[in-house]
């Protein structure tokens, strides 16, 4: 009896914070918003945090969801999330960043790439703009090849391969990232146009193909150093990224 009461209390507490988004492949369950104070360049900024999980089964029985997930070790599988700032749903203009997880750059501060810089700078830009969202896409490590494969790609890069050559040498395409679930979540949180922070025209194309309105694009270059110069050159010359002046070359 006590256990049943506890279950009821848990479900009652959670049900207002769980949103079911039906998709062609099943459902995306979105949990949030959750207040998340973030240390951003020495200042505490309050974001609203959401996390989502894709499932084949579609149900609005949240007790069933809890029972199913408690028997699975989700810590072994990465889930994506989004940080929202300001009145993201209703504001006329909002900036967003579709940020691919980078274990080495985001966590360790690696200078082999510019990911850590882009993560912090996009959050700063969103706060300064007044409203926006940072999507943190967990299944995008190494442009979609995973962390272990990325480590092998780094070995190849240390032996003269560029980023594209290393990924292709391991049997992958240059960029296998998929934005479909992030698009479902974005549609659930906002229907008005957004400004996308990116240097990658493929991200703009993915949003437009999903029927999402884009009001503009903001470049996000920075943190160039001796350690990532070849990496940045490859982004522009081989992967089609656009530099700050709109050209496909970098000085």
Give your account of this protein's structure.
With 251 residues, the protein is of the alpha/beta class. The chain has a single domain, classed as GTP cyclohydrolase II (Rossmann fold), CATH 3.40.50.10990. Helices cover 37% and strands 24% of the residues. Helix 6 packs across helix 7.
Low-pLDDT stretches are 245-251
By CATH, the superfamily comes out as GTP cyclohydrolase II
* Gross morphology: globular
Mean pLDDT reading: 85
The amount of beta strand, in percent, is 15-25%
Count of alpha and pi helical runs: 10
Q: Pairing-aware structural class of the strands and helices?
A: alpha/beta
User: What fraction, in percent, of the residue positions are helical?
Assistant: 25-40%
Strand order of the largest sheet: 1-2-3-4-6-5-7-8
The H/E string reads HEEEHEEHHEHHHHEHEH
* CATH class categorisation: Alpha Beta
Q: Total number of β-strand segments?
A: 8
Largest sheet: 8 strands, mixed
Secondary-structure arrangement, i.e. CATH architecture? 3-Layer(aba) Sandwich
CATH fold call? Rossmann fold
The value of Rg in angstroms is: 20 Å
Number of domains: 1
Topology:
Layout: H1 2-14, E1 18-23, E2 26-40, E3 43-55, H2 62-70, E4 81-85, E5 95-100, H3 103-107, H4 115-129, E6 132-137, H5 141-144, H6 147-157, H7 163-169, H8 180-189, E7 194-197, H9 201-209, E8 214-218, H10 229-237
Parallel strand pairs: 5-6, 5-7, 7-8
Antiparallel strand pairs: 1-2, 2-3, 3-4, 4-6
């Amino acid at each position: 009896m006590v256990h049943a009461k506890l279950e009821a209390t848990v479900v009652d507490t959670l049900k207002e914070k769980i949103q079911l988004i039906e998709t062609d492949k099943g459902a995306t369950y979105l949990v949030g918003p959750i207040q998340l104070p973030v240390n951003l360049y020495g200042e505490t900024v309050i974001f609203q945090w959401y996390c989502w999980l894709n499932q084949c089964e579609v149900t609005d029985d949240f007790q069933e969801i809890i029972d199913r997930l408690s028997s699975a070790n989700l810590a072994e599988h990465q889930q994506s999330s989004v940080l929202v700032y300001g009145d993201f749903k209703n504001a006329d203009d909002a900036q967003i960043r579709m940020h691919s997880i980078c274990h080495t750059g985001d966590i360790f501060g690696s200078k082999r790439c510019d990911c850590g810089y882009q993560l912090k700078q996009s959050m700063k830009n969103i706060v300064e703009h007044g409203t926006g969202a940072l999507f943190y896409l967990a299944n995008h490590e190494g442009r979609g090849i995973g962390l272990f494969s990325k480590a092998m790609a780094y070995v190849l890069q240390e032996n003269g391969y560029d980023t594209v050559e290393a990924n292709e040498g391991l049997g992958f395409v240059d960029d296998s990232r998929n934005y479909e679930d992030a698009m479902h979540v974005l549609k659930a949180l906002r229907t008005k146009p957004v400004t996308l922070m990116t240097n990658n025209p493929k991200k703009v194309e993915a949003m437009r193909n999903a029927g999402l309105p884009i009001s503009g694009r903001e470049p996000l270059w920075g943190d160039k150093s001796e350690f990532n110069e070849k990496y940045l050159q490859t982004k522009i010359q081989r992967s089609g990224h656009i530099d700050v002046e709109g050209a496909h070359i970098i000085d």
